[in-house]
Every structure is written in C-alpha cells, then in structure tokens.
C-alpha cells in the first residue's frame, strides 16, 4: 500500500507551489491527494517578480482538480502534509476544517512542508508557537505574532516542519522535506 501525502489548497494558490511538490512526491513513489474546500476544478495563479513593482505580480495559472473536500479528510490516512502558498491561505486559514487538518498533523508530529503564504494556515491552527520558520518575507510580523522565530532564509527545518519563502526555493525545500519524510514515512 502506497504512503499517502496530503496537499491542502484552494483557488488562487500559486501554481508552482502546488504542482512542483505534487509531481516531485509522486516521482518519489508517494500517493498524493489534493484537498480543498470542495471537490472541484481549482484555479491557480502565477506570482512573479518584475522590475518596477514593489511586490510580486499575479497572473492566471493552471487549473487542477481537487481529489477531496476538507471535510472528507481522515488525517490518520496520511503520512505528511504540504501547505502551498499564493493567496489561497489568506482565506483558507478561516476554514475550521483546514485548521482541524493542520492541528492533527502538528499534534501527531507528522512532516509538514509549508511555503510562501502557507504558514498563515499553520499559524491559524496554532502550529507555529515556539517553532523556527521562514515564509514569504512580508509575513515576518505574522510569523512572530504566531509565536514563531522567523528566519529569512531559503529553507528552515525545525523537526518535522520544513518551510520555504517562495517557489524560487523549491529545490532545497523539497530536498529537505524528502529527508524528513523518508525518515518518518519511507516509500516501501
């Protein structure tokens, strides 16, 4: 039986931050499911950095189907969790079901990979207090308000919590996450 990994996301998630870990984890032999507020075709976005802009820009991205709704997630069925960024975490953190999912993974000390704005969800679920994290740099104050020690670096590993700033940090983020994941839930 394949080891299952869960990705929690929604509309306006950053395309690369959903699809890169999805494909990379499948390549390693894990079974990956995407959960969202409801089962539907999700519409992702592309965030990019352009000269002359004070912040990132946003354009329409890929679409991808959600496999299951947050309410249908049985956390015990999954070995690890991925929390992508984009704008989706800004509204998903208000969903009690996604907070239930995050809290269950954190309490069970299962591996969690979070990137960009994804830590907003982990913070809302109470999973960052006393932890070292990175996130999109504009979230430094949010991370500190959640009780985390913020580090502006490519990737931060704190036990089973692996965080990164944004999609340019993918390679190191997934390399570090896979190291943690193989230790906790190796592919048979």
Q: Can you describe what's shown?
A:
Belongs to the peptidase C56 family. It comes from Streptomyces amritsarensis. There is one protein chain. The protein is of the alpha/beta class. Helices cover 30% and strands 27% of the residues. It has 6 helices and 11 strands. It has helices at 15-27, 88-92, 96-107, 119-124, 140-145, 170-184, and strands at residues 4-8, 31-36, 41-48, 57-65, 68-69, 80-83, 112-115, 132-133, 149-150, 155-158, 161-164. The protein has a 7-stranded mixed beta sheet, with helices on both faces. It has a two-stranded antiparallel ribbon with strand order 3-4. Strands 8-9 form a two-stranded parallel sheet. β8, α5 and β9 (149-150) form a beta-alpha-beta unit. The longest helix is centred in the last third of the chain and has 15 residues, at 170-184. The mean pLDDT is 97.
Relevant terms:
188 residues; DJ-1/PfpI; alpha/beta; two-stranded antiparallel ribbon
Question: What is this structure's SSE topology?
Answer:
Blueprint: E1 4-8, H1 15-27, E2 31-36, E3 41-48, E4 57-65, E5 68-69, E6 80-83, H2 88-92, H3 96-107, E7 112-115, H4 119-124, E8 132-133, H5 140-145, E9 149-150, E10 155-158, E11 161-164, H6 170-184
Parallel strand pairs: 1-2, 1-6, 2-5, 6-7, 7-11, 8-9
Antiparallel strand pairs: 3-4, 10-11
